[in-house]
Design a protein that fits this description.
alpha/beta, six-stranded parallel beta sheet, two-stranded antiparallel sheet, 8 strands, globular
Amino acid sequence: MSTRDILIVTDVQNDFCPGGALAVREGDLIVPVINGIMDRFHRVAATQDWHPKHHASFASNHPGKRPFEQMNLGGIDQTLWPDHCVAGTGGAGFHPGLHHDRFDIIVRKGTNPAVDSYSAFRENDKKTKTGLDGYLASIGAERVFFCGLATDYCVFYSVMDAVSFGFTALVIIDACRGIDVPGGSIERSIRDMKRKGVRIIESKDL
């Protein structure tokens, strides 16, 4: 691996793993895969959902609404979620088996109570940046490798933004798991990423 290659570990948090508030099926199974590949990279970045408890994406903050229903929030189509990854709670913490001491930088997202943030690069308003693109540019990153949770949401949106910011993006698919809500969204996400020139690889290919 080159010093211009960087790994981004996306949202491997307790609430997204089995037993969590918004559990991704088999989400914990990627932890040993990620631990096994981090030492291949000169730098590793991580993202962390970090929501205020009154976040607009939580169904509980909209009377009469239920998790996974859709609504419009400020002109943005929004899936409503169970309360998850509330800042400072155990659910927002990284999975205990993840070697998070290996992270060079942690990007916390979803902190604005009015706007959700799937992508590691910018909020769902497509305007407000997290600063990750500037960090990557400052260290001369060229290829960005993605893993984590969930394939069809935060990984997908992060990958698509990475391409739009001019980086070469690769997804380590056996180090990802998806929600698949609505059904078929994992397959559609992979297809859309490939159409953008994103390479889908496995950890053994590194």
